[in-house]
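User: Hi! Is it possible to get a structure for several chains at once, not just one? Here's what I have:
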Amino acid sequence: MALPAAEAVSQAVLAGDLLTFPSSSGEKVLCGPGLRRQGHGQLSGHALAVCKSGVVRHKEPSVYWVDSQQKRYVPAKGEYVIGIVTAKSGDIFKVDVGGSEQASLSYLAFEGATKRNRPNVQVGDLVFAQFVVANKDMEPELVCIDSCGRSNGMGVIGPDGLLFKVSLSIARKLLSPNCDVMKNLGELYPFEIVIGMNGRIWVKARTIKHTLLVANVLESFGNMTTEQRKQVFKKLSDNVP
Amino acid sequence: MRETPLSNCERQFILQALAERQRLDGRQTYDYRNIKITFGTEYGSCIVELGKTRVLAQVSCELVTPKPSRPTEGIIFFNLELSPMASPAFEPGRQSELLVKLNRLLERCLRNSKCIDTESLCVVAGAKVWQIRVDLHLLNHDGNIIAAASIAAIVALSHFKRPDVSIQGEEVTVYSPEERDPIPLSIHHMPIAVSFAFFQQGTYLLVDPIEHEERVMDGLLVIAMNKHRELCTIQSSGGIMLLKDQVLRCTKIAGVKVAEITELMQKALENDKKVRKEGGKFGFAESIPNKRITTFKLDETPVDTDGVEEQAEEIVSKAEPSTLPVPKPIVRAPGTGQIGEGIQNEWMINDLEEEEEEDEEDIVPEPGAQSLGIDNEKASTHADAEIIQLSDSEEEEILILEPEGMKKKGRKVNSEEAQQISTSNIVLKNKNKKKQKKKRVQQ
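Assistant: Yes, the chains can be modeled jointly so their relative placement is included. Here is the combined structure:
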């Protein structure tokens, strides 16, 4: 089904739909996630094909993308993720990041690691790392070090704490700079949190009860409206022990 | 796909939480999750949701020849399938140990307990009997599959209606649902399985474990009972040692739970019957809530924009002046940028000046035989000026060689000639040199 792009904004579209642009406007259109270029002159002007079902969004002047719900992670370069170490083989660790392939993490890619001074990483540990290689043709590779050689917050995530999984959109929302959920929650209970772009979140609060509370709150907040969130926060703050 | 491994962190946390008597979802030790039962449009199909664990059941029937050992009994066939959509650990086509265990448990629970009256399924003894087939599909795995599966199976069987059959002599007529109303199966009792997970070497138990709890448990005990408190099946796996009174306690808990669940099932069945009788809408499509993806959509609200400009001007005039902006970077060469100007280097300026002087002094007196012409010129200029003492030691007397021939001629000579001349000069005029030198020193 072909829709003019201007009308399609804030509408739900299905994979396979086409968003057309008037040929008169010679503007460049930026394709965001969920859209692909299509049209070799069959339709007037250029067209974008939708490849993920969702709601079309538009940002001035020329960026279009599709907001879709997704739980399955696809590795992308430069993203920070939480991985679980599954195997140690030779010089590398095999890390599960939730994608189709396990990523490899060299033992030299830690701050202060040398051939003699190996990092203290066991099978089953959680690591917070960044992708340096992530495309569909190669095995993804992770590092726990930035370009200057500093760890910058990456590395093995300490003992205790709870790991749980949310959808990718919730993780992105929590990572946005002005997330009021995090601020409000932080005012109620102090906690430590690591958010991976693969939907995995690690939380640690003062007691086990607080940790469970924070985890449950974050899991459920993704799909609540602001009104419902405010109500829940009021209830929580009344019961703060 | 490979199963997501359980990290040490999670395992530790769950065990610690259990030590403090906390469960991940906040339930108490004997609490069951919410059970939801929905029926499809066809008789005998239902979906049971136990928390996030989901099982779909479908019952169908067929006329077949009976087993030779039991010519007057119908056949009931159970089949549970672990769909790959339930968990990344399940792969299609591979018979895993878990699948075999669950199937066997289901068979024992439902077939061996004789909950369905198989004699009533006989049509023609020895020739035609009904074969009832129950297909169960696991749609989502979040622990306690056996409980969800057993509830789904028994509810589907209770919901199912088989076609009516009439026998006239040797003739058997099977009526379609339009001709005659189908008749329900005759069910004696409803066995339901309850599972208990054990931790801390069998001292602590949980009812209805979720998937994470199942991964870290020591052992599992499954008890199938009906509401009349009759035990249908007991199975203990994981190799933990259980005491007699522990097992008895579990059966008591199971009895209570089964009574509650049976009540829920009866209510659901009655609701569905009522809806169908009244002609209302029924089926899966009606029972699944309307979950739309446009949850982030906000309606546009009208905004009052009168007097906005005046307000804005007020705010701007009252606001503090903004801080000085950072000067724009200067690009000196492609690839470099400079913002502002740096401060003068104040390190060791005096040291630098002294070093420069020393360098000059070192360069000037070079008593080397090569390119004497240049040296000569330098030396001559140097000699005209006052002799500067280069070293503090008074032991050495520094000899500056000046071939006088070169001086008079005043032109550059190539090095060989210069060498010869100089050596001859040195040999002949050594004495003179010394005298000359002494003169100079005295000056």
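Confidence is low (pLDDT under 50) at residues 293-298, 355-385, 405-418 of chain B. Chain B touches chain A at residues 1-2, 4-13, 16-17, 20, 22, 24-26, 292-297 (CB under 8 Å).

User: Great, thank you!
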